[in-house]
Amino acid sequence: MNNTHCSLDRYKQEKNKSIGYQHKKPIDIDIVSSLYQVSGMGNMFSTIQDLEKWCKFLLIGQDSILSKEMVDLNTIGHFAVGYEEPFKGFSSLQYGLGWYVFEYYGHKVVLHHGDNIGHQSLILLLPDDNIAWMMIANKGMRANSFPFRMSFSLLDLMLGNRSNDWNRLLERDETIFYNYPDSLASPNTKPSLALPKYSGEYIHEGFGSIKIQCKKGQLLLEAGSYKDSLTHWADDTFRAQAEAFGEDYIFKFILDEQSQVISLSTDLIEPSMGQIIFKKK
Hints:
By secondary structure, the protein is of the alpha+beta class. The protein is about 15% helix and about 35% strand.
């Protein structure tokens, strides 16, 4: 798999590469460069040819690398992570060693997905049927992912089932906001502190840093090459309206008992993941 790596710089130098899109507009990958602080935590670049090799290896193993018995150990459910039959035909969801494992109408299914702004991927294995596929889309992250809808539809076609309407079942969770309605704001509240008190660098060991500055009475944020201004939302919470992404994000400053800012909670990384906490440096 000579064309599989975790180097953002190498990807940028490639002439033949997929460009990511968000809301039908191309996304500059430099905008999410802060996500690439930890190599291998997602954030991997590959080709369809290399992924085909990877899927074949997962189905049959290779003793010089990892035996079939050890591969199978990865794709056995070790503990439950879901509810009984969330959709018709599904068994309860389990987690192996890095894989989600379940049965669909009696067929073992092993899968995992990856996504970033502008890109999505999903690898699905049916080990007992000796079948695997990769579903890749250069489209922005969404809870109702196209790779998931298409993969589950393919499962139905292969197994002769026509019972699930995946476009309906995988509608996005309405509690996840990509554009926050103004009705959720609290315009009659005010920040606990003077705006300069929120300035600083906020660190997450996996997702890098977010820098907050106060200039001319305005809070400004910088994350990788993404820069934006913050407007007051409610209490110690602010909002950034990212026009380039067609989304907006919430930034909630968390204070200790001495009214000192200790961390920042935000859904900037991926709205469907919810709020991720960055600790103040």
